[in-house]
Amino acid sequence: MLLLKTTATTLSAVSLPLLTVSSLHHNHPKPTPFPLTTTKPLTLRHSSTTPKIMNWLGKLGFGTRTPAVSSMDQQSSIAQGPDDDVPAPGQEFAQFGAGCFWGVELAFQRVPGVTKTEVGYTQGFMDNPTYNDICSGTTNHSEVVRVQFDPKECSYESLLDCFWERHDPTTLNRQGNDVGTQYRSGIYFYTPEQEKAAIESMEKHQKKLNRKIVTEILPAKKFYRAEEYHQQYLAKGGRFGFRQSTEKGCNDPIRCYG
Asked: Of 100, 154, 162, 256, which one is the catalytic site residue?
C-alpha cells in the first residue's frame, strides 16, 4: 500500500503577499483573441450511402418530405374513377363479384346473349394492381367478371339470376375456402336502370334466405383486366388441364379450380 506523508505547515511560517483590489484588477493580462480563419462552406457529397442516410432521416422526421402521400392520392383518384371502357356497338357492360372469378366467369360465359367476359379487379385504391397486390388484402380490390351482353338477347335480370345462383351472398368476404376482401359479393352497376334492377333483385332474393345478404351494390369503377393466365381459366383447362364447356345453356357442374 502506498503511504503519503504530509508535513504540517503553520500559517505563521508562511508569508503571504497582500492582495489588494488594484492588484487584482491590473495584474492580469488581457486575453488573447482567437485568430479568425475563413473556411469553405460545408457541402454534402453524394455517395452510395447517401440515400440510406436520407431514408433514415426521413423516418426520424428530418429531411425533405417525399411525395408518397400525394402519389397514393393520385392512384386512388384514378382507381376510384368510373370504368371508361366502351362496350361494342349495341352491347352493354355489367360487373359482378362473387368470389374467385374463375368459376364465376365460366357461369356467365354459358348465359345466352353474353358476347364477351373478362376477369379483373375493381373498387380498390391502387392503380394498375397485380394479382399479388389484391391478394395482400391492402388494396380493397374485388375480383370481378365484366360481362358484355346484347340486351336484345339477354336481359340484365337474367344476369342477376346467374349471379345469385352462382354464390352465397350471405358470407362476408368469403366464398367457401376462399377468404379475403377480394372475394366479397358485389354488383357494380353502369346505369340507374341497372342499380334499380339490382336492388329489386336483392330484395326478392332476400325473401328466400334465412340469413342477411351482404352483397354491396355500387357504381362500376375503373376495371383493371387481370393477367392473361386468369382469362377464361377454366375453359382453357384450369389447374389440371381439363377444359370445361362454355356452350350456351350448358348445365355441367363447374369445377372451380379445373
From this structure: 100
